[in-house]
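Case study.
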Amino acid sequence: MASLFVIHGHDQGKRFPLDAAVLSVGRDASNTIQLQDSEVSRRHAQIAHTEQGPSLVDLKSSNGTYVNGQSVQERILRSGDRVQFGRTLLIFTGNEDRSSIDLLEEVAIIDRNRPAEGSRIVSSISQEEGSRIVCETDPATSPWLARTRSNLQIMYQTALAASHTLDIDQLLQRIMEFIFEWVETDRGCIMLIDRESEELTPKVFRHRRAARDAEKMRISQTILDYVLEHREGVLTSDAKTDERWDTGASILKMGVREAICVPMQGRYDTVGIIYIDTYTPPGQMIQNRQINRFTNEHLKLMIAIAHQAALAVEDTSYYSAMVQAERLAAVGQTIATLSHHVKNILQGIRGGSYLIEEGLKLSNTDLVRKGWSIVDKNQEKISNLVMDMLTFSKERQPERIAADLNRVVADVIELMEVRAADADVRLLWQPAEGLPLWTFDPEALHRAILNVVTNAIDACEKSGDGCVQVWTDYDQPRQVAVVAVQDNGEGIPEEEIRRIFSVFESRKGSRGTGLGLPVSQKILKEHRGEIRVESTPNEGSTFFLEFPAIAAGPTTETMSELPSG
Amino acid sequence: MISPSPNPPHRQVLIVDGSADTREVLSTALRMRGVSTLEAAEARQGVEMARQYHPGVIVLDVEAAAADDDQICREYQSQSREHHSRLVVLGRAVQYEQDLPRDRIMSKPYHFAPLIRTIERLLSSSAET
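After joint prediction, the assembly is written out as follows.
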């Protein structure tokens, strides 16, 4: 769908789909595209679909219509055109991006089941490690790398300056030019992750003249998945043997294709990947007695380039407006979800209060008591909601003190006994014997355990034979403190286990806030621990809250004072 | 939910609401007024009960599970037309609001006293017809 996306102005972040045959643009509400901009005329311009593409016509507006900085009366829009009405700047995205069609002819992503002609990963380097070459300088070991490193700074500066004016495709084109300048590659491709479909879309493809008639660029999905998942750059080769220096018969016959695939890791997220490859024909290998053209140095450099490129991409107005629009939507969703919970709790409090009022009027103590228990339950709910919200929103350091894990769990059990009895669920508690004092934040852990136990009780509430078992343990070999919470509820299907730790993903319908487990997980992470789940549908789930057991008291202090080794 | 038969059907209220608190409050307040109550936690089960008992009033929380299902919505409306089960909806939902008088739609969060008054008024007017 062709669209205009507002990158600057009051309506920033809005996307107007060009879905009608004729659309009008203006300040007035009667327009298809209404812009909140006093510099825009009431009826400013019109867009009509023609065979050549959408035609933009200025309707004698007071301040004029500009495309790519030029005043226009009439103009056929092309993808990437910047259109300005008054103070509002928009980017036009075409229906069918011509360049992307061409790209699909050049680039093929090969699915997981078909191995890409025996290519395999020769080495991989993590994104962090790769980025380090930007700051570390050791010209002695590699003058080539040192030179490129200084170029990298220049590239970033250029890209940064460019990114504010260029649209994203032009920026990527520039980045590809840089890569071809510095790396001896035959072909290159930049793919960005589409923020809606979350799929990789080829944006730029480039090849050296000599490589023009070579086969289509084949990129294996397995390698793309690996790069995105591990956030590592990889070097692959289709050389048939492990001994890459052995110019074996097959290599002589087929030549070797080598490729580097690196993630574009930005400030917030991975925005895409860069893929480059070379092909060394058999003849050349005999001449040079050397078959590999890509080394770990190349890989490191490409990781650094990709990182800088990602930063530049994030800096483009188009991208940041899109991210901002997404964030606003997320904030909106957060507020909607939270007000929904508060509204439900408020409804409960009103109900309870109503019964209390009636009871007081009729001097009916039973009624007052009934009303009070409802109010009480709901004030507990709101306090939990607020505590979860606070824990989730704050970056806090756990206040570590020497504490007794069994005591903390016992407190939770005591609190939950009423709820378990109400739900007709047996609550069994088995403290491990002889646990020493450990250093952790008992209040935070209390909350983490409380949320998990609450879920466990809810999970087997309807089963009739509900039972929740809680125990503590010390995993000696791993030196990990464990609190386990087991229920015999309906269990969680494997594909949903990852989702239960996402915010606002409640499996409990209106009863859950979708904050409980994410909060517990966050607390455990703050303790450098984690929550593990084992679950069998129809049999139940066990949640293990695990964190490093740091012995409390004088023992640790004297230990750390001893000279090491 | 307990022995609905001895009461004349029009002095009976069906409460369809996902919240146990709301069901308890409404049941308690109505039973004190000599009205018998039926309870359902979700809309599908509620339709079954409405078909079986033809209560004088149905109180339906539009957020109850399956209440947004079009088929279920039509069933409630036909129960209301054919068996004089007056519908009161809790919360706003377009599909339920088409034929419903404004005073039978309670926007959330609502107060219980006016809700109870509405239910009583509907019960006594259906007793007259």
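Observations recorded in class. Chain B has one domain: 9-123. The CA atoms of residues 56 and 84 of chain B lie 7 Å apart. We will return to this complex in the next lecture.
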